[in-house]
Amino acid sequence: MKNLVEGLNEEQCAAVRASLTGSILVLAGAGCGKTTVLTRRIGWLCSNGFDPEHVCALTFTRKAADEMRERVSGIELMKECERRPFIATFHSFALFILREKIDEVENFVRLGYSAAPTLQTEKERLKLISEIVAKGDREILGVDLIGLESLITRCTVFPEKINAFSGENQLIIRKVLHQFTYEKRRRGVWDFEDLTADVIELFKLDFSVLERYQKKFRYFLVDEFQDTNPVQIAFLRQLLLPSTGLFAVGDDDQAIYGFRGADVRPTLEFTTIFNNAGIVKLQTNYRSSLQILHAANSIFKKKPQAYRKILRSGLSNKSSKGVPPKWLHFENQTQMADFLIGEAQKQVGSLKINIHQCAVLFRINRSLEWVSQYYAQQGFTTEETPALVTIHGSKGLEYPVVFLCDLEESVFPNYRPPGKKVRKGRIVGKILDYFIGGKAPAVCDWDEEQRLFYVGVTRAKQVLYMITVRNKFVYGRKRKFERSRFRKLF
DNA sequence: CGGTAGAAAGTTTTT
DNA sequence: CTTTCTACCG
Question: Most CB atoms closer than 10 Å: which of A94, A277, A343, A442?
Fold first, then answer.
C-alpha cells in the first residue's frame, strides 16, 4: 500500500489517496504526471477493498488504453491478482455493450438494427449523407457536403443545438437526422459517434441492461476528461449510482478538440454536475526548464483563480534553468526549413539526443507537408530529419527541442473564413481576402488557439524556438504574413 | 442522365 | 495549387 504513493509529490499523493466515495477532479497541468496518478489510483482502489473487476477506466485512444493497462499490470499489488480492471476507450466500451447478448437477444437488435452493424468509414458516411439529402436542402442550409456532415455531428452531440436554427432550417435538419438514423439502422452500419448514443438509447429502452452495468462497475476513472463530448458525459452519468465513485483527470488548459464536439463545461462545472465532488490540482512539472515554464505560465494570466494553474518545476536539477525561448523570423519557408534541419543537428550534438527527439510543430497540415516535401527533394530520409508533427498530434508527448512554427497571424491563431450566406437561393462564395487581413471579418476561436499554443509550448523540455515566416505560399500564391499576436504574450 | 468545363474553397482528428 | 462541387450541354 505504501509503495503506491512512493516517489510521488504531495499533490499527487493527495490525488491518489483522495476520498474513495464521491467524485474527484484532478486538474493536471502539462507534464505533471497525470498518467502516474491515474494508474496508482487504480492500485489504491484495489488495495482499499475494490475488486479490480468493479473498476472501469476510460480513455480516448487505444494507445492510451494500452499504456494504462500495461502500467496497471506493472503495479506490484496487481501482479498477485488474476482479476483485472476494465480499461478501454469510450468507443470500445460502448461497442462491447452493444454486441452483448442478453436473454438470447443481442443488444443491437433491441435498437432496431437488422444485422450486426459494421463500422462505417468516413467515405461511406459522406456517401450516405449525400444520398439522403437533396441538393436543394443543402443550399437552403447554406452548407456543402462536408459542412453538412459536421453539422450532423454537432447536432448529434448537442441535440439542443437544433433548436437554434430557424424554422425552415430546423425542419430540414430534423428530417435529415431522422432519415440518416433510419438508413443506418436499416443497412446495419454504425458511425463512431453512434456507439455511445446507441448505448444511451439502449439503457433507456431496457433499464435492466443499465442496472447490470451500474452494479458491475462501482468506480469509474476517466482520462483526458476535458475532451469528453456531451454524449459521453450523459453515458457516464447514466452509469453512476449515487454510491459509485468517479475519478476524472484532465486539463482545461489543454482542451483543443472543441471542433469535434468536445465540451470543457463538465470540467469547469465539475462540482455542480457530479456528486460530492472535490478538486485536486497538479502543478508541479517534471518536464520543462524554468524558462519554458515561465513562458507557459504567462499564457493564462487572466484566468479566474479557481481554475488557474501555475506550473512550478519539480526537477531536482535546478541548474536546468534552461535557455530563454527564442522568437525567430524567416523571409520564406526554404530559409526556415534549412535552419530547422541545421539547428536540429546542432542540438543533437550538444544535448546528446536522437534527431527524432527534436520536433517541428505545425498548426496546419499544409505547412507540415511543405517542409516534409522540401526535405524529400533535398534527399533527406525521414531518419535524418526532426519529427514533423501537428500540435494536435503532439499532445501528450514531450521533446528536448521544439520548433513551434506557423506563428503568423491568421495561420496561428488560425482564422476561418466567415460563414457562408445565402442570397437569392444561392450560396455566396467565401472570400480569400481574410488571409491577408482583408475586409471580410474572419472567425477566430481565440481561446482554443491560445490553448493550442500552450500545448505547443509545454511540449518542450529544454529548447524552444517560436517561428514566423514572412512570405509563404498559400494555395499556390505567395502571401505576406504578419507575426502572430502570440508574440505579445511574452 | 452523364460528362465536363469552370468556379469555389481550402484547420485541427480519434474511435 | 489541388480537390471538390455545380451548372450546363449534348
Answer: A94
Strand C interface, protein residues by Cβ within 7 Å:
A 135, 138-139, 144-146, 426, 475-477
Assign 3-state DSSP to chain A and report helix, strand, coil percentages, each to 5.
50, 20, 30
A61 touches strand B (CB under 7 A): yes
Q: Is the CB of A422 under 7 A from strand B?
A: no
Are A155 and A161 contacting, i.e. CB atoms less than 8 angstroms apart?
A: yes
A154 touches strand B (CB under 7 A): no
Residue type, A194: D
Cα distance between residue A294 and residue A289, in whole Å: 9
Taking only the tens place, the pLDDT of each residue in A318-362 is 657 889 999 999 999 999 999 999 999 999 999 999 999 999 999
**Distance in Å, residue A139 CA to nucleotide C5 C1':** 12
* Each residue's pLDDT tens digit, A81-113: 888 999 999 999 999 999 898 888 888 888 888
Quick one: which H or E segment has residue A282?
strand A277-282
Res A462: pLDDT: 95
The 10s digit of each residue's pLDDT in A219-245 is 999 999 999 999 999 999 999 999 999
Q: What is the pLDDT of residue A453?
A: 97
The residue lying closest to nucleotide B14, measuring its CA against C1', is A61
Report the distance from CA of residue A4 to the C1' of nucleotide C7 in Å, as an integer. Answer: 68
**Model pLDDT, residue A200:** 92
pLDDT in tens, A158-198: 777 777 777 777 777 888 888 888 888 887 888 888 889 88
Instruction: Provide DSSP, A15-33.
Output: HHTS-SSSEEEEEE-TTS-
Give the nearest nucleotide to A427, CA to C1': B8
- Beta carbons within 8 Å of A418's beta carbon, 6+ residues apart: A430, A431, A434, A440, A441, A442, A443
Cell of A315: 526537477
CB atoms within 10 A of CB A17: 17
pTM above 0.85, yes or no: yes
- Of the candidates A280, A223, A273, the one whose C-alpha atom is nearest the C-alpha of residue A57 is A223
A475 C-beta less than 7 Å away from strand B: yes
